[in-house]
Each structure stands twice: as C-alpha cells, then as structure tokens.
Amino acid sequence: MTFKFCPLCGSPMTPFMEDEFPREKCGKCGWIHYHNPRPTVSAIISRDEKILLCRRAAGPFAGKWDLPGGFMEEGESAEAGMRREMREELKVEIEIEKLIGVFGPSYYPFGGQDNYNIDIYYLVIPVGEPVAVDKSDVAEIGWFDPNNLPDMAFPSNVEAIKSWLKTSII
Ligand SMILES: [Zn+2]
C-alpha cells in the first residue's frame, strides 16, 4: 500500500527506499509511511471430521470461503482479538485450545490499494452453536471436509488447515 498524499497534512508524499524497502515521506510534516503488514486472527473450529468455513459477503474475494476471523484492533492481544471476532461473526464465546501457527503474507487488495496481511491461527472450541450473525460480512457458514476444501479466498488459510491436519487426529 502506498500513499500519494499525507494522511496527516494532505501534502504530497515522496517515495524513497530504506534498506531494500519502499516507503513514502511527507515533504511538509515529515510523516513516513512504512508498508507494514496487518495482523489478522482466524480460527479452526472442528467437529465430526469437518471444519467451519464462512462464505465472504464483501470484498475482497466476495463469494469465496475463508476461516472465521478478522483484523486485530489497536491495543488488542491476539487472543482477545480472536474472542472478539468469534462473538462478532459467530455469536459464540470460545475456549482457545492452541496456537496453530502464523502464516502469510496474504494478498488483500482493498480500496484500490495492495495490502498484505500476516495471519495468526488458533484451534478453538466454541461454547454453543456458531451462527452467521452479520450477513453483510458472512453470507453463510458451512461445515467442510478439510481434505476437500471449496474455493478459498486466502492461500494462508489452506496452509494453516494443512499444518493443523498434520498434527490432529480427526
Ligand atoms: Zn504531512
């Protein structure tokens, strides 16, 4: 993601390289835009040899499937973000069983910008029955054979599922 104009003062940004990495600096106030990835948290929820997936209602990759989860908020721990996302998307409290791993970068084009995410995955156990709460975010949820996945939005989801399958006995 690049900024042509400074989000703080509106002045033009000047691209430059630091080490091998592209950045932009504001010619007026000096603000520097570092192209850092954004962390997300997602969950593998397993039941009866299947896993829960969500069909994306909104872009990017609307119509494709992904694991439930989302972007972390400022000041939030990964586990707190995981619990919040499960409440928001599936209306359930959870027990966090273990960290599966960190995968990515995931390409996430949004608002005309190329963004990249770093994705944190937990194995979680829902307390209660997950339901799709916000249909503008999750069109529907479904249970799928983890060895026969539908059209997935993010390769890192598939990596996390494969990594979990190696160590699980479902
Ligand atoms: Zn500025």
Report on the architecture of this protein.
Helix content is 15%, strand content 45%. The chain is an alpha+beta fold. It has two domains: 1-35, Ubiquitin Ligase Nedd4, Chain: W; 38-167, Alpha-Beta Complex (Nucleoside Triphosphate Pyrophosphohydrolase), CATH 3.90.79. The strands form three sheets. The chain has a four-stranded mixed β-sheet with strand order 8-4-10-9, with helices on both faces. Strands 5, 6, 7 and 11 form a four-stranded antiparallel β-sheet that branches. A three-stranded antiparallel β-sheet has the order 1-2-3, with no helix packed on it. The longest helix has 13 residues, at 78-90. The protein is elongated. The structure holds zinc ion. Zinc ion binds at residues 6, 8-9, 11, 26, 28-29, 31.
What can be said about this structure in brief?
By secondary structure, this protein is an alpha+beta fold.
What topology emerges from the helices and strands here?
Elements: E1 13-18, E2 21-26, E3 32-34, E4 38-44, E5 46-47, E6 50-56, E7 65-66, E8 69-71, H1 78-90, E9 93-110, E10 113-127, E11 138-144, H2 155-167
Parallel strand pairs: 4-10
Antiparallel strand pairs: 1-2, 2-3, 4-8, 5-6, 6-7, 6-11, 9-10
This protein binds zinc ion (ZN).
Zinc ion (ZN) is lined by residues 6, 8-9, 11, 26, 28-29, 31.
How many helices? The count is 2
Biggest β-sheet: count, sense, barrel? 4 strands, mixed
Estimate the global geometry from the Cα principal axes. elongated
Structural category:
alpha+beta
Number of domains: 2
CATH-assigned homologous superfamily of the largest domain: Nucleoside Triphosphate Pyrophosphohydrolase
Q: Secondary-structure element sequence?
A: EEEEEEEEHEEEH
Stretches where pLDDT falls below 50 for ≥5 residues?
none
Strand line-up across the major sheet: 8-4-10-9
Provide the β-strand percentage band.
Answer: 35-45%
CATH architecture of the largest domain: Alpha-Beta Complex
Question: Count of DSSP E strands?
Answer: 11
What is the rounded Rg?
Answer: 18 Å
Mean pLDDT: 95
Bound molecules: zinc ion
Give the CATH class of the largest domain. Alpha Beta
What distance separates the N and C termini?
40 Å
- Predict the CATH topology of the largest domain: Nucleoside Triphosphate Pyrophosphohydrolase
Q: What percent of residues adopt helix (DSSP H or I)?
A: 10-25%
